Amino acid sequence: MKLFREGTSLKSLCLNKRFCVTAFLVVAVCLSIQVMNQIDSATSQPEPDLAAFNSSVAQPDISEVKQASLETNESQVSLVNFEVDEAADQSVIPERLEGRAAVELNMALLQAGYDRLSQTSGYTAKYYQHEVVGGKLLGEQLIDLKIRHQPFSVYFKWLTYDVGKEVIFVSGKHDGRLLVHFGGWKARMLPVLKISPSNPLAKAESRYPITSAGLMALMETLMHYREIDLQRENPGVDFRLLGSETFNGTDCYRFELVYEAPHFSELYRKSIQLIDKQFQLPVFVKNYAWPGHDRPMTDVELDDETFIEHYTYSDIDMEPQLTEVDFDTTNEAYNYRK
Fold first, then answer.
1. What residues make up the domain containing 29?
2. Could you give the CA distance from residue 82 to residue 99 in angstroms, rounded to a whole number?
3. Which string of b and e fits 275-312 if b means at least 16 CB within 10 Å?
């Protein structure tokens, strides 16, 4: 997967203070792991096997180790001036983590991706969604996606499922309504439909309104849950970094989390997330709910029964040079006028 065009300058996306703060978070989590190893070596204790974190041995408090690394090694603190992609140096991130350390790393990477994407005017991508809506599993959908951040604007064109269907939404225009052009035979029978994002017709096609479309909203949701996890003294979640995985040709960090009980997370029981190593974007998110019974099941059966949503992003271009016509029914490349 090619996220940027040739010649893209990452430094142009990293010239603000927030990036430095984000870089600090990533560096702090990574350096804490190095300090843990140094402490173990100094005391002649065997170095922890990061591939076997699921043990009965209590792990050190990562927040205390992080604080110690900042207080005792000022030369390391100077590294916070790295650019985001340098700060998230893959060579200092272990293959496996669990508990609070994994939550903090996940949060820091998501914040890095969010800050990077927020510095762009918009992006294009191939967007995949597979959802349970109203208790019914809908078909898999692959969509051409264009998003502009200001004013928030969305263009969808379905490549599968309802092939040829197009949707345009521009914040502040068309009385806040979607402009829907149907695909297939319906395109010849029905006019362009103008409906509210909250209209039952629109809600029947997706778990979330078009106003929540895209990577920015996805990252905001994921970070919201991570903030809750970090605030609890007992987060009630088994959170793990499980090494690397390749998705559409891109190297990613694989995170998996499973909550202990519904009172820790009312909706989600389990989540699988792949975060792109180079640009820290969540390119794959698959979520599962709680079962409606207590019958014994295998893990596979449980996941099959409780699956609720799956989203992926590929072919992401963060310098697409989008203009007004990309979100207008007069665009000659669109089928609104045909």
1. 10-118
2. 26
3. bbbebbbbbbbbbbbbeeeeeeeeeeebeeebbbbbbb
Specify if 252 maps to a domain: no
Query: Which amino acid is residue 202, in one-letter code?
Result: A
pTM: 0.74
Per-residue pLDDT of the chain (338 residues; tens, 9 = 90+): 444 444 444 444 334 444 444 544 444 444 444 434 443 443 333 333 333 333 333 333 433 333 333 332 332 222 222 333 443 566 678 889 999 999 999 999 999 999 999 999 999 999 999 999 999 999 999 999 999 999 999 999 999 999 999 999 999 999 999 999 998 878 778 889 999 999 998 889 899 999 999 999 999 999 999 999 999 989 899 999 999 999 999 999 999 999 999 999 999 999 999 999 999 999 999 999 999 999 999 999 999 999 999 999 999 999 999 999 999 999 999 999 76
Dihedral angle of Cα 258, 260, 266, 271, to the nearest 10 degrees: 0
The total domain count for the chain is 1
- Tell whether 26 is covered by a domain: yes
Which secondary-structure segment (H or E) carries 43?
none
List of residues 6+ apart from 306 with CB closer than 8 A: 269, 270, 288, 289, 290, 291
Instruction: Round to the nearest angstrom and report the end-to-end CA distance of the chain.
Output: 33
